[in-house]
Every structure is written in C-alpha cells, then in structure tokens.
Amino acid sequence: MTATTYLYVPGDMPQRFGKALRSGTDAVVLDLEDAVVAARKDEARTSVAEWVARCDPDGIELWVRVNPGDVQARDIRAVAGPNLTGIWLPKVESVRELEVADRILTECGADDARLSALVETATGLMAAPDIARSPRLRFLQIGEVDLAADLGIEVDDSAEQLLFARSRVVTASAAAGIEPPVAAVSVNFTDLPAFEADTRRLRRLGFAGRACIHPKQLQSVRAVFTPTAEEIGRAEEVLSRLASATSGVGVDAHGHLIDEAVARSARRVLARAR
C-alpha cells in the first residue's frame, strides 16, 4: 500500500520516535534539517541512526530528511540500513544531487532505499522534469515556505500563488512515470476542517498524500485520500459499463460518455482504495 500520511518528528527528540511509529501514520519522517538547531545536529544524527537500526517498523515506512551541503553524505551514511525506507533530500536543484545520494546508498548496501526530492528554489522548480527522472526517486515534494521566499511571492490562504509550482511538479511526476508528489506540510493543526479542505484541494491538483507536523492532522489526510464507498461504487460501475460496451466507449448511469481516459481515473480510485 502506498503511504498517504507522513509524520515529521524532530531528530533531536528520540522520546517521540516510538510515539510517532504508533501514531497511526503510514510513514515517519525523522528530520535532521529544519527541526534541529545547528548545535544539536551531531546529536540528532546519532539518535536517529541508532533508533532506525534497532527499531521494528512493523510495516510503517521510515524516512529521514537529511541536511543539505557538506554534512549530507555523513547523514545518509549514518542512517542507511535495512529498516530505512528512504531519504528526503532538501533544496534539490539538479539531478547530480540525487546521483550522489544514490551512489552513497549503493556503497552502504542500502539497495532498497528510495529518494524523495524537495523542490524549494526557482532553480529546482525549473529543473523538476529532469529531477523527476533521477535514480531511486519515488516522488517529488515542494518546500513551499522556502520556495515562496526564493520567488519573492506572498502566499495567502487560497495559495493560488503556488498553483504554477504545484502543477509543475505534478506534471513532471506524471511525465517521468513516478508516484504523484506528496503535498507540503501545513502549520494548521487546530482548525481541522480548514486543513482538510486545503488537503482536498491539493488532491484535486494531483497530489497523493501529505506531510504532517502533528498527529491531529493524520485523520484528515487519510479521509481525503481514502476513496468513499460512493466513489468506489462509481468507479466500479464505470469499469463494468465500459467492459460491457460493444465499442471502445460506453455510457454511464447519468448518460455521460465513458472512454479509456475515464476508465484510467476509475482504476486510480480503486488502486487508492486498496
């Protein structure tokens, strides 16, 4: 099953690691970057590496967001191991950064570990189609706060200022044949109806899953990305009617045309349900 909820945990708070694993999330993201001040980076790296090596994920994905720059290789080497699902690379601007990470993981014997690239600059955004075809890449993401700062834009509640960036990474992902991008975090974990509505807009744009900063957000994200019984029934009906059609097109219960493009969307709904 593809994960839809990704819960961030600061890498210098090992007392929270186990709680995150039992929170009901599909994936835990141990953060060595923004959540950890410079003076505690080494301590966080050690704590995360030790925990990842000895924990029992029990089916939960374990990702680590590493630091950019000179310490990135050290971060990756420290956490590479059999329990690691993959690495989140921040501020990616070129394919070369993923190639370097791929080589390090190979040297460490982490053959199954995957990568996710966070697009957080204008340079990275324009390079997204190439980045999407990088080795080991499972999905793209946007670091929306950093990207907005780099672009010099002011984002309001509608976030319409980010529409181009969001659509670009969705398109780049589809063109490269990788998983759809995971939506960026929201600092809102108190007004859950608003958070859920925002997440639903991101799903309609083509995102699949969302990073979370608080366990309270998990249920809303799962509700958005889990098809309802009505959606499943409608998808099954579309496929059934098209299969029984005497030509390459059919008609649904509302008299609307059904073709292979409609069927692809229906199959996607059923895949999410599974």
From TrEMBL:
<dbReference type="InterPro" id="IPR040442">
    <property type="entry name" value="Pyrv_kinase-like_dom_sf"/>
</dbReference>
<keyword id="KW-0460">Magnesium</keyword>
<dbReference type="InterPro" id="IPR015813">
    <property type="entry name" value="Pyrv/PenolPyrv_kinase-like_dom"/>
</dbReference>
<dbReference type="InterPro" id="IPR011206">
    <property type="entry name" value="Citrate_lyase_beta/mcl1/mcl2"/>
</dbReference>
<feature type="domain" description="HpcH/HpaI aldolase/citrate lyase">
    <location>
        <begin position="6"/>
        <end position="215"/>
    </location>
</feature>
<dbReference type="InterPro" id="IPR005000">
    <property type="entry name" value="Aldolase/citrate-lyase_domain"/>
</dbReference>
<dbReference type="GO" id="GO:0000287">
    <property type="term" value="F:magnesium ion binding"/>
</dbReference>
<feature type="binding site">
    <location>
        <position position="120"/>
    </location>
    <ligand>
        <name>substrate</name>
    </ligand>
</feature>
<dbReference type="GO" id="GO:0016829">
    <property type="term" value="F:lyase activity"/>
</dbReference>
<keyword id="KW-0479">Metal-binding</keyword>
<feature type="binding site">
    <location>
        <position position="146"/>
    </location>
    <ligand>
        <name>Mg(2+)</name>
    </ligand>
</feature>
<feature type="binding site">
    <location>
        <position position="65"/>
    </location>
    <ligand>
        <name>substrate</name>
    </ligand>
</feature>
<keyword id="KW-0456">Lyase</keyword>
<protein>
    <submittedName>
        <fullName>CoA ester lyase</fullName>
    </submittedName>
</protein>
<feature type="binding site">
    <location>
        <position position="120"/>
    </location>
    <ligand>
        <name>Mg(2+)</name>
    </ligand>
</feature>
<dbReference type="Pfam" id="PF03328">
    <property type="entry name" value="HpcH_HpaI"/>
</dbReference>
<dbReference type="GO" id="GO:0006107">
    <property type="term" value="P:oxaloacetate metabolic process"/>
</dbReference>
